[in-house]
## 1
Amino acid sequence: LTSANLTSANLTGAILAGANLTSANLTGANLTGANLTSANLTSANLRGANLRGANLTSARVSTSQLKVAIR
């Protein structure tokens, strides 16, 4: 899923553990309750994404745009 365009995607409850989402565009995506354990979100755009209840344990988020993500 490297560089994937997932803008406004409904990923509620998605199991993305270990996924490579490097440089993915997740702007406005709904990741409520998603499992992102050990996912690689390096340089991903998460602006406006809904991360309520998402599991980000051990996820790599360096240089990701999380500024206005909903938690």
## 2
Amino acid sequence: LTAPEVLEEALSQVWLDQALEQLPEREGQIVRLTLEGYTQSDIAEKLCLSRSNVCKLKEKAFAFLREEYTG
């Protein structure tokens, strides 16, 4: 990676960390697990939630993140 690419990646990570802190705890957990590659079924099992609840919370969290990112 070039220096500008490293900087861009670091800034993106900082932005994401700050945005995730604004989410309710459960939504933040779901986003983090999604980004780590867990499926909705895996997340549901890990957090003791139904798949449909995970889906709803995930949609809500990503809508918030989209809005924060695009302003």
